[in-house]
Protein: EF-hand domain-containing protein
Organism: Mytilus galloprovincialis
Amino acid sequence: MCFEFLKISSTQSARNSSQNPKRTKMQAVKGFFASIKSGFVSKGKTMGIILGIFNPELSDFQKKKLKHEFHVFFDLNKDGILEWKDFDLARTKICDLSGWKVGTDKFQQTNELFITIWRRLQDEGDENNDGKISIDEWLQMWQNFNEQCIKQSKKDNEEPPERKLPEWLEQYIEYKFNLYDRTGDGKVDAEEFEYVLSDFGVPPKDARCAFLMFSCNNTKKVDLDYFKELCIDYYRSDDISALGNFITGKLDFND
């Protein structure tokens, strides 16, 4: 999808370049994002916003996103299940990428964080208490969380049920943001995003295109607050036009 838009924009720009070559690049960018906007806004639904009643049942689209996250970013040893050694590998990965040596404060803090995340995830997802979380248990955990959110929303009128996250995921999102923010300046740029995702097997061109999508052509600062909103879209939203769908670098969930 992204590359089709780029191709259309580039072709149009080439036709106009003989008239005003200085405007060629700007026209390509404007054409790209104008196409995205017109394609994603329809029937009262806009990017990242869902109108109507929140459905507790996971849709096929939601399941595809959750399965992708499970296999690419959680199951690091690729054995089809989640267990502590996957989180130990993740801890090692971020410490190695960040240069945090054994014995340093950052290393210790990261170790404690991953132990906490795993324990909370295990409490919510390991239904048969075997110390492992299968893909079926993973999806069932999210189904249960949807139902819990709806029940809770009937008791209070605070945060919409589709915008809530499990406590363990709040911590995981902060870890993920810090993993992307290689320079530690409080925001993620395209180069950092591409660099980190390459370590998870995401093609550079896909990562760059995804970043353009959710950063609105680099006009939106990707700080922790905005990154969290994108993550909520990815984990909870059934809106196929939500910008958060692109935070893993995957452009199409139909395959």
